[in-house]
Amino acid sequence: MKVLANDGISKSGILALEKGGFEVITTKVAQEQVANFINENNVDVILVRSATKVRKDIIDACPGIKIIGRGGVGMDNIDVDYAKSKGIHVINTPASSSESVAELVFGHLFSGVRFLHDSNRNMPLEGDSNFDGLKKAYANGTELRGKTLGIVGIGRIGQATAKMALGLGMKVIAADSFIPQVDVKVEFFDGQSITTTIVSQSLESLFKEADFITLHVPAQDGYIIGEKELAIMKDGVGIVNCARGGVIDEVALVKALDSGKVAFAGLDVFESEPKPEMAILMHSKISLTPHIGAATGEAQDRIGTELASQIITLLS
């Protein structure tokens, strides 16, 4: 059987699939050519990340597909229900990238509270001529310890983020329509651990209480954070989105950054991805990454081997 890993797969995933008797194709096929390639090469399984879309047209055009796999959590680039109605297995790897995304969230938080993103832009330009000026500009940093982190969506990634926040000595609050409460276990290097219970509260109360807010939700029909929500937040709040583009109103966000209502934002995803708006890209108060939340070697190894395991189980 043949597996097309159109958005790539780790070496460990390839080896596991090959050991299970599968042929793995890692050719990057253009979106408009995916259906033809699948049919011409008798592909049984297509694996994607976020770039390739598997919609109704591809599903209808490729009756030989047995499995559609998503390397990661969100499956908004796949017509999941339609695929299942055609008897196709749809799989993903919800647990594999949680820690990687959570660490990126804190990369953005640390960058924001210590102005690292802007300092790294300006030090090469002015570090030799305006050292004291830059030192003064970036001197009013903030500690994360003792502050309140509001987590919108306390699923696997939200919980991984909560563990890191608790380890830093932050207070953690959460809002989640589907998870009323969750026990979060923070494990240490020496085998010791602590467990704390986080009870979901309303979004409105979270927005009012949190010093920093991080989003961990799937794609939405509307904004979770817009002008109304920004208005009730604390002055000087920091906002991070490593979830999905389109859950924050970017026009309202820029306005709030310009007014000082929001101290900084950290964005890994964007409304108009893969061509983010220039007003976002050029803003001195936004820490930017190009949708790399799950892009660590460790996460990709876990994703590859987990996908391989599910495929072998389903088709063996």
Automatic annotation (TrEMBL):
Transmembrane segments: none
Domain D-isomer specific 2-hydroxyacid dehydrogenase catalytic: 9-315
Domain of life: Bacteria
This protein's record includes keyword Ligase: no
Keywords assigned: NAD, Oxidoreductase
Signal peptide start and end residues: none
Sequence ranges assigned to domain D-isomer specific 2-hydroxyacid dehydrogenase NAD-binding in this UniProt record: 107-293
Short name of one Pfam family: 2-Hacid_dh
Family note: Belongs to the D-isomer specific 2-hydroxyacid dehydrogenase family.
Name under which the protein is recorded: D-2-hydroxyacid dehydrogenase
Species: Flavobacterium ginsengiterrae
Source organism phylogeny: Bacteria, Pseudomonadati, Bacteroidota, Flavobacteriia, Flavobacteriales
